[in-house]
């Protein structure tokens, strides 16, 4: 039965979504979480967290050579962030669409950054850019036991 259930859930993925310190300071936590809830994705992990410098550097390790890297690490560690693991079919690409372009002035209206931000250095939210990074980042930001295995009873109304 479980095998059958798993096979019927097409392409379920996990992604790491983070509300950056500006989003927390500006009181946008509820607004941003609602976008993912209303879309129909499943929350698997959630915490308010003061990110240490080493973790910010590891998270953004691919950007180490960029001139803005020191400012980026300072930004991400400047106050608490909200760390989230979300699950759903095709969620990695779908979450990137909900979030919008990196530069908020180029992000489409209707996206989180398009609606709520004006500058690349204050773009309120992070989302993993690949399935591989989704796995990597969820494992990086959450310890064993911090994710919740649960059944969302509304699932049959979201996926046939
Ligand atoms: P993404 O968050 O849309 O995936 P990335 O290119 O992975 O964008 O960059 C990570 C984060 O680094 C961005 O969300 C933004 O906060 C910051 N960043 C990217 N480019 C710039 C820049 O040109 N100036 C300042 N900050 C930047
Ligand atoms: Mg990125």
TrEMBL record:
Enzyme kind, highest EC tier: transferase
Domain of life, source organism: Eukaryota
Residues at the catalytic site: 126 (pros-phosphohistidine intermediate)
Cofactor: Mg(2+)
EC number(s) from the headed UniProt entry: 2.7.4.6
Binding sites annotated in the UniProt record for ATP: 20, 68, 96, 102, 113, 123
BP-aspect Gene Ontology terms: CTP biosynthetic process; GTP biosynthetic process; UTP biosynthetic process
MF (Gene Ontology): nucleoside diphosphate kinase activity
UniProt entry keywords in alphabetical sequence: Kinase, Transferase
Domain Nucleoside diphosphate kinase-like: 12-149
Catalytic activity: a 2'-deoxyribonucleoside 5'-diphosphate + ATP = a 2'-deoxyribonucleoside 5'-triphosphate + ADP; a ribonucleoside 5'-diphosphate + ATP = a ribonucleoside 5'-triphosphate + ADP
Family: Belongs to the NDK family.
Full protein name: nucleoside-diphosphate kinase
Upper taxonomic lineage: Eukaryota, Viridiplantae, Streptophyta, Embryophyta, Tracheophyta
Stretch of the intact protein here: 109 to 268 of 268
